[in-house]
Each structure stands twice: as structure tokens, then as C-alpha cells.
Amino acid sequence: MFQSGNRKIQKQPISLNSNHFPMRTHIMDNNTFQLIETMLYDGKIEHLALHLSRLNASAGFFKFNYDEKAIAAELNNVLLKLDKNRYKVRFLMDKDGKIEISTAPVETYDDKYTLAISGARTESANIFLYHKTTIRELYQNELGKARSAGFFDMIFFNEKNELTEGAITNIYLEKDGMLYTPPQSSGLLDGTIRRNLLNTGKAAEKILYINDLIDSGRIFISNSIIGLKEAAVTL
Q: Among 17, 37, 149, 232, which residue's Cβ finds the most Cβ atoms within 10 Å?
């Protein structure tokens, strides 16, 4: 369930390696899921190095075979067939390193980026929150509820009532001219736009709560397809 109403609020980087992930405990058989990367093609793949770095880190954590030369060759084969339009490139990799790549034109989104708050709480110890995989049933279900109600994304809080992320976006709160985003320790994916903002000093990590969301000057969201966009939250 998500909460909605009439009130709208418009108001040091972590290196990408497995030492910052929760311990590998009670992981399901790695034959049952795939790693994902979703990338923007706009004449080239935006932030390709960050995507591959994240994929490599997750592959090492879950003990998947990672062959960057094979990945680059397969990706180049796909990109050569694309025209000059903007495309969403979706990359799936299984534990043996087998690759599936699909493409689709980027859809134009003219509406405001509105966010609902999920009534479900995530668990910061859930390792799958730190990696982009096909294990994302909660997020898919909650995103479906948000979209059915006319919202762009559903955002989450964890068991400690810390703000974490959206089903398909990272979130940022603006205060005194600075963007603050929840730390990975709250249980979230280190998105490529998020990582770039942290690396360039344009954002900083901070544990955030509901009051921070209410009191923030402006709210922003990001993912690799939409970039960084201002958003509004309905409480």
C-alpha cells in the first residue's frame, strides 16, 4: 500500500566495491537470477564506465563470470544497428556470463515527475537492494501501484524509517544549495547518475527521514534514462 493525499511538497562518495555491501548470507542459488544494467544510448552509451564498474562489482560479489571483452563485443554489435535516436539499452547477464541485450526507443515523458510513498518497508540488510538484479518483485509491484494511480515512481523507507530510493530512481533533497542523497548503508542501488554526482561533489550522502523530505527546498530524482529531474512528493 502507498500513502497519498492532497499535500504536495516541492521544495563522501563510496567506492564501488563489494566491501561496502552487506555480508553474503543466505543468498539464493545464483542460477535463479540475472544481473541488470539499463543504459541510455544517445550516440554513445552515457556513463558506460560507471555501468561496467557496477556490473563488475556485482558479478564479483555474487560470483558471476565477468568477461569485459565479450561484453564490449556484444554491446558494439547491438549499437551498430541503432540509428541516431535515443535508446534504452537493457543488459542481462547470468552467472555463466551469458549476455542478453535489448533496445527500445526512449519514450517522451511530458508529465511532472510525481512520487508516492510506499507503505512497505525495505530491510537495509537485504543484499539485493545494493545490486541491480532481476530480484525486484517488491519494487515492481509497488511501481505498478504508483503508475496505476498516476505517479511516476514509488519511493521507500527502510525498517529504521530512513529514506532510501524509488523503485526506478535515486532520490535527492536540496538544502542550502546542496543535494543530499541517502547513503548506500540505508539499502539502495548506487545509480550511475548518483555516482557521478557524488564523484563530482554535486551531491553528498546523508541519512534522511520523513521530516527531511517535508522540509526540503526541492526534491530531485535520477536514473540513467531520465537523468536528473525535479520531482514532487504526495504525502
A: 37
Residues 210, 157: contact at Cβ < 8 Å? yes
d(CA 29, CA 129): 17
Within 10 Å of residue 48's Cβ, how many Cβ atoms? 16
- Domain 2-16+109-234: assigned CATH number: 3.20.10.10
d(CA 24, CA 38): 24
In the numeric block, the cell 546542496 is attached to 178
CATH code for residues 35-105:
3.30.470.10
Q: pLDDT tens, 14-68?
A: 333 444 445 444 455 567 899 999 999 999 999 999 999 999 999 999 999 999 9
Say if residues 66 and 55 touch (Cβ distance below 8 Å).
Answer: yes
Check whether 4 has a pLDDT greater than 60: no
Q: Name, in order, each residue with C-beta under 8 angstroms of 131's C-beta and a sequence gap of 6 or more.
A: 21, 35, 58, 61, 62, 189
- Parallel/antiparallel/unpaired status of strands 178-181 and 170-175: antiparallel
Residue 159 C-alpha from the chain's centroid: 19
The domain segmentation of the chain, as residue ranges, is 2-16+109-234, 35-105
Alpha helices in 122-191 (DSSP H): 137-148
